[in-house]
Write a structure and sequence with these properties.
Helices cover 19% and strands 32% of the residues. It is α/β, with parallel strands linked by helices and 527 residues long.
């Protein structure tokens, strides 16, 4: 349940615009790729790696050079703001990759010429071997492993990706260091160029008593000084837990046992946003108790018209039978991606004329809060502060800095009719952020049961040289009036008391939501 929040993210972040297809602009970058002797290189890869301002339609383009080393990259974007190209890369087998990082603002119809000259390079190639479930041994990483590598040499630094753990990089002759940016402690030095047989494995972890004590103290102190929710956990005596678990950590026979001691100590926080990441394997420290669901997926889908229903991957958008209300059904928030969000937003915009809308967040299980903002903004007529957050700012567990507002940005053409938002304990983490966005809007009525009450915005604390990181909550999430809902949840405007059993065959929460929306629509019509 990762949690990310950024205030004031507009719909343009996802490439969504109320403009039509005729508003699409295009610009082009073209040129030639040559070697050090000015001979053209055929089959070289040229790509745009980064842009700002206007967002490119369909992602960032890449291409291969033709027989004479020529290439052309077309950028399509919407809106009057020019797209600014920040990075262009050119690479070819046997040559050092060249990166052009000049800012190039491109207006509609612009053609910019960028030629490349690539120097010959020596190879650095091989395999990253980080065991997927343990820091011991030398097991190969699975085929879908993806590592971001920082390659350092004298006067040289580049970033590359090792897909499936395999890499082939061309560098000037010399000695290099490679560091895995997404694997704490995985780094190697003294690597001479010209080798294809590199087998890079983490160094064996040696845990003597001194190191175990140092690592334990570092974790305990990091949580003591940065963990955000001690203020709602008065029964947790963190000093006493240190006295209890430190001797056990010193007695741990290996890394598995040591991590087990940390998990046992952290479990006392009873926080689902606290876990340990071991080389990509997540080990929970606390298992949240089961909750009674208040939804019935089959009953909900049966209430929607089949014609015109749009499956966006993470959500479904359609209309209810009979009333013709718009319906946004969250299926799995954590599965949302930019394409799915754009698809859902377009489907919602297409239902602008329905009499009312239901936003069903009963299964909003958390993810990237920016994507939730892109949907909620479609119902927002005026910028609204929907939440506050604060962070630790002192040694005392109750010492915090200032409150930071999180703002939902209004849509130029929002849905202006009544909205019902269905909520329940399945809404958690950034799903609760989504709920707060909807609660901040004056035409929205929330119906259902309280949300889970677990929102921590976890961040890692790396254990040096261990390929292990401890994640724990870093903020206090609050409603706009400064109320903390951790362990409590967000309450609905209309409470539906039904337990999970009635939802096995029917969906009482949905039926109540439809009744409430009908009444809101009648009231608005009579005004």
């Amino acid at each position: 349940m990762f949690r990310f929040a950024y205030a004031g993210i507009a719909l343009a972040f996802f490439g969504l615009s109320t403009a039509g297809a005729d508003d699409v602009r295009s610009a082009r970058i073209e040129g030639v790729v040559r070697d050090a002797d000015q001979r053209p290189i055929a089959g070289a890869t040229v790509l745009i790696n980064r842009t700002t301002d206007a967002r490119p339609e369909g992602g960032l383009p890449s291409t291969k050079t033709g027989p004479k080393g020529e290439y052309a990259l077309e950028l399509r974007y919407q809106g009057a703001t020019p797209i600014v190209v920040r990075e262009i890369w050119a690479s070819a087998t046997g040559h050092v990759r060249r990166q052009e990082m000049k800012a190039r603002p491109l207006k509609d119809g612009a053609v910019e010429r960028v030629d490349f000259q690539l120097a010959r390079g020596e190879v650095l190639a091989g395999e990253i071997r980080i065991p997927p479930t343990s820091t011991r041994g030398g097991a190969k990483q699975p085929e879908n492993a993806r590592y971001v590598l920082e390659v350092d040499g004298e006067g040289f630094r580049q970033y590359h990706v090792a897909e499936g753990g395999r890499f082939e990089i061309y560098v000037p002759a010399g000695v290099y260091a490679i560091r895995c940016l997404n694997q704490p402690g995985a780094e190697w030095s003294g690597l001479k160029s010209g080798r294809r047989d590199l087998k890079l494995e983490p160094k064996p972890v040696v845990l003597d008593e001194k190191r175990k004590g140092l690592l334990f103290d570092q974790v305990w102190s990091a949580v003591d000084s940065r963990y955000s929710y001690f203020i709602v956990k008065p029964d947790v005596d963190w000093d006493a837990l240190r006295a209890m678990y430190r001797p056990r950590a010193l007695q741990a026979g290996d890394l598995d046992q040591f991590v087990g001691v940390l998990r046992a100590m952290l479990a006392h926080l009873k926080d689902p946003h606290v876990w340990i990441d071991r080389s990509g394997r997540i080990e929970a420290c606390y298992q949240s108790p089961p909750y009674e669901r208040n939804w019935n997926r089959a009953a909900t889908l049966a209430a929607l018209e089949e014609e015109g229903r749009v499956d966006c991957g993470f959500a479904i958008v359609g209309k209810t039978k009979g009333d013709g209300f718009g319906y946004f059904l969250m299926v799995r928030q954590s599965a949302a991606d930019d394409l799915g969000v754009r698809k859902a937003a377009s489907a919602i915009v297409a239902l602008r004329d329905v009499p009312g809308f239901i936003v069903d967040l009963r299964q909003a299980n958390g993810g990237d809060e920016r994507k939730a903002q892109a949907i909620a903004s479609l119902f927002c007529r005026k910028d609204a502060v929907y939440a506050l957050s604060k962070y630790r700012a002192g040694d005392r567990h109750d010492a915090f800095g200032k409150d930071f507002p999180r703002t939902l940005v209004a849509s130029p053409r929002p849905f202006a009719r009544p909205v019902v938002c269905l909520i329940g304990p399945g809404a958690v983490s950034s799903g609760e952020g989504f709920v707060m966005m909807m609660k901040a809007l004056p035409r929205v009525t929330t119906v259902g049961r309280p949300t889970r009450g677990a929102s921590g915005n976890p961040k890692p604390f790396d254990l040096p040289g261990m390929n292990t990181a401890v994640f724990f909550s870093r903020w206090v999430d609050m409603t706009p009036d400064g109320q903390t809902f951790e362990g409590i949840g967000l309450k609905p405007d209309v409470l539906v008391e039904h337990t999970a059993k009635p939802h096995d065959e029917l969906d009482p929460t949905l039926r109540k939501g439809i009744d409430v929306l009908r009444e809101r629509c009648r009231t608005l019509k009579s005004q």
